[in-house]
Amino acid sequence: MAQGCLKCLKYTMCFANFLCFLCGVAVLSFGIYMMVDFRMAALTPTLARFNLANMLLVSGIVITCVSFLGFLGALKENRCLLLTFFLLLFLLMLVELTVACLLLMYESEIGKMVDEDLKKGLEKAKGETSNTTDVMSEWDLLQVQLDCCGVHNASDWGENVPPSCKNKSSQIREKGCLIKLKNMFEDNFLTTGISVIVLCIIEVLGMCFAMTLFCHISRSGLGYKL
Fold it and tell me: Is the whole-model pTM more than 0.85?
């Protein structure tokens, strides 16, 4: 009976980590795609320094490596790999909770930074620089997708209001892109919070499975030694 439960737990961990590995590959691929085709500097020059594409690349690499450790540790019944998998999951959960708390604590400061950043990007779009076309294409896309104009309103563009500020009725859109971005964030806040909670629950379950399998292997004398 105990041996059957051990095998069930083992293959459950293998399957779950294989799915996580595929998710990590997807995130890694999306990061590569963004690095090639997405230009965030056109809209938010300061935030672009964080380089979202690089963050996705790092996240994808971390997810694939951690899930591979969990898969291999469960498949080979290797206590060293299982313990490493447990510790890495614990550290990842701490980092995620810390980032979530910081975002909640400094929400107003982040809002001000985005406001200033959008203004810088708009001024860059209005300026006569060599990459004005690229900058304008990003702003045109943002204004059409979010049905907005400028940072606060169309007056941010001055006399040269771009065609993307006009809707299908050729009327200038009244709302600015900043308030649209805030509304979009607020609309998705609950979904994001639930996603973080679900992710933490999955990580806790992964740690419980890894430690349970580790203890079973230790008591039965199976697996590789530490």
Answer: no
**Domain contains 189:** no
Rounded to whole angstroms, the Cα distance separating 38 from 138 reads 9
Note every long-range contact of 135-143, with CB atoms under 8 Å and residues 24 or more positions apart, other chains counting.
Answer: 135/42, 136/162, 137/42, 138/39, 138/42, 138/43, 139/42, 139/43, 139/164, 140/164, 142/43, 142/177, 143/173, 143/177
Tokens of 175: 């709302």
Report the C-alpha gap between 206 and 209 in whole angstroms: 5
Mean pLDDT for the stretch of residues 80-103: 86
Of 216, 222, 221, the residue nearest 5 (C-alpha): 216
Instruction: Show the domain range for 66.
Output: 2-94+207-220
**78 to 6, 40, 186: CA distances (angstroms):** 13, 43, 45
Q: How many domains does the chain have?
A: 1
Number of neighbours of residue 15 by Cβ within 10 angstroms = 12
Query: How many CB atoms are closer than 10 A to CB 99?
Result: 11
Q: Is residue 28 part of a domain?
A: yes
For residue 49, the 8-state DSSP code is G
In a domain, residue 118? The reply is no
Q: Which range, 34-38, 90-94, 157-161, is most confident?
A: 90-94
pLDDT digits (tens, 9 = 90+) for 113-161: 878 878 877 887 776 544 455 556 677 877 888 888 888 888 888 778 8
Residue 162 lies in a domain: no
